[in-house]
């Protein structure tokens, strides 16, 4: 059986003021759907964080509807989805008991849990165990078990309640932070304070475990427990990561082989470092990427972002690590005993640490002050 494992779509994500829905639609329509067809996929797994928030924008919902319809109703491939910590389990579960009959398996709300779902290939059954994201407090309530204190306790209890028969080949789908996994900047912690990590050893009975939550593709604890990673790069900290889908082949005896097929997004997310002038003058074939500019200049760049956006319309952020702020420009003086001229000189030094104001510049400022004070006296200002 050949499974496509994907996770953390975060549909409707807002990235530096831009909704990424069109970029997400591009990757899903132009790359994921053809992959499902061309690779002869028998089942698709989406391991949580379908949406970026519990109340997603309408066009994000429309996109998920469109993609899910193409996978299940049109391509006839079973589609397994669990809710992640960003999803509303209740909203995601709408219609889940009906959709199950169409090969669209959604596990969100605990009361409506479905599965284990059993599919068959030439060698027999493969069971899919769906474990949506669950808070320890919700698990305590659902299982009526006061001893559940941590995410690890909750998962152990959850796994125990969803046994799928021992001889069978089994695929587990879960949304957790597995200990030893490497985090990225775009994940929301599963708990504030306390430990949210679970031991990957909890998954040792499964043939393959398809995880969601960590946005970098990686294996944890062994080759059969994996994160597929997010659909796109959702922070600049991820700019060197490759995003894509994991293809998992499960053989007759429950042996697995995995491969990673990368996506090529319509607009990449990357960091560009250098001097402002060099960046503006340099040749760049991908000026429509989302870019964080890390300018190595020491002097301030007037309207730097606006100028960068003329060449790079998706310029998202600007950092100047070498900017010397503070030092001579610090407020180590008494504001009330300082003249306007001294104040401006202090400001100029903070902005241009490499040189003092010239006499001509000082004279110009003096004229402006004199003119302004005069106009103020005349009641013009
Ligand atoms: Mn996520």
UniProtKB/TrEMBL annotation:
Q: Which Pfam families match?
A: Metallophos, SbcD_C
Q: Which UniProt keywords apply?
A: DNA recombination, DNA replication, Endonuclease, Exonuclease, Hydrolase, Nuclease
According to the record, the signal peptide region is none
Q: Which GO molecular function annotation, any one, does this entry have?
A: endonuclease activity
- What's a GO biological-process term for it? DNA recombination
Calcineurin-like phosphoesterase domain location: 1-101
Q: Which residues form the Nuclease SbcCD subunit D C-terminal domain?
A: 266-350
Q: Which InterPro entries match?
A: Calcineurin-like_PHP, DNA_Repair-Maintenance_Comp, Metallo-depent_PP-like, Mre11_N, SbcD, SbcD_C
The subunit structure is: Heterodimer of SbcC and SbcD.
PANTHER family reported in the protein's UniProt record: COMPONENT OF ATP-DEPENDENT DSDNA EXONUCLEASE (PTHR30337), NUCLEASE SBCCD SUBUNIT D (PTHR30337:SF0)
Q: What role does this protein play? A: SbcCD cleaves DNA hairpin structures. These structures can inhibit DNA replication and are intermediates in certain DNA recombination reactions. The complex acts as a 3'->5' double strand exonuclease that can open hairpins. It also has a 5' single-strand endonuclease activity.
What family is this protein classified in?
A: Belongs to the SbcD family.
What is this protein identified as? Nuclease SbcCD subunit D
Specify the species.
Megasphaera stantonii
């Amino acid at each position: 059986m050949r499974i496509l494992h994907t996770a953390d779509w975060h549909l409707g994500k807002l990235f530096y003021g831009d909704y990424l829905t069109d970029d997400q639609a591009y990757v899903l329509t132009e790359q994921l759907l053809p992959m499902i067809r061309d690779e002869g996929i028998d089942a698709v797994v989406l391991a949580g964080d379908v949406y970026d928030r519990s109340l997603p924008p309408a066009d994000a919902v429309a996109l998920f509807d469109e993609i899910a319809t193409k996978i299940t109703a049109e391509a006839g491939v079973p589609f397994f989805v669990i809710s992640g910590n960003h999803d509303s389990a209740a909203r995601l579960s709408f219609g889940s008991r009906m959709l199950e009959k169409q090969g669209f398996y959604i596990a969100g709300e605990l009361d409506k849990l479905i599965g284990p779902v059993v599919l068959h290939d030439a060698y027999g059954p493969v069971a899919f165990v769906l474990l949506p994201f669950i808070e320890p407090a919700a698990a305590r309530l659902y299982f009526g078990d006061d001893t559940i204190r941590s995410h690890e306790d909750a998962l152990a209890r959850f796994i125990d309640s969803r046994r799928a028969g021992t001889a069978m080949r089994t695929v587990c789908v879960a949304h957790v932070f597995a200990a030893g996994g490497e985090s990225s900047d775009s994940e929301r912690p599963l708990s504030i304070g306390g430990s949210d990590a679970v031991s990957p050893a909890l998954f040792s009975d499964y043939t393959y475990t398809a995880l969601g939550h960590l946005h970098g593709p990686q294996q944890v604890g062994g080759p059969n427990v994996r994160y597929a990673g997010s659909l796109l790069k959702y922070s600049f900290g991820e700019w060197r990561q490759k995003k894509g889908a994991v293809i998992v082949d499960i053989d007759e005896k429950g042996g697995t082989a995995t491969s990673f097929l990368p996506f090529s997004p319509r607009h990449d997310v990357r960091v560009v470092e250098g001097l402002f002038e060099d960046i503006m003058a340099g040749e760049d074939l991908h000026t429509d990427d989302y870019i964080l500019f890390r300018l190595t200049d020491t002097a301030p760049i007037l309207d730097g972002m606006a100028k960068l956006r003329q060449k790079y319309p998706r310029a998202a952020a600007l950092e100047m690590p070498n900017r010397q702020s503070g030092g001579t420009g610090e407020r180590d003086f008494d504001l009330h005993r300082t003249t306007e001229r001294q104040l401006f000189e202090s400001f100029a030094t903070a902005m241009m640490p490499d040189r003092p104001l010239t006499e001509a510049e000082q004279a110009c400022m003096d004229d402006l002050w004199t003119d302004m004070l005069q106009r103020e006296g005349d009641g013009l200002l």
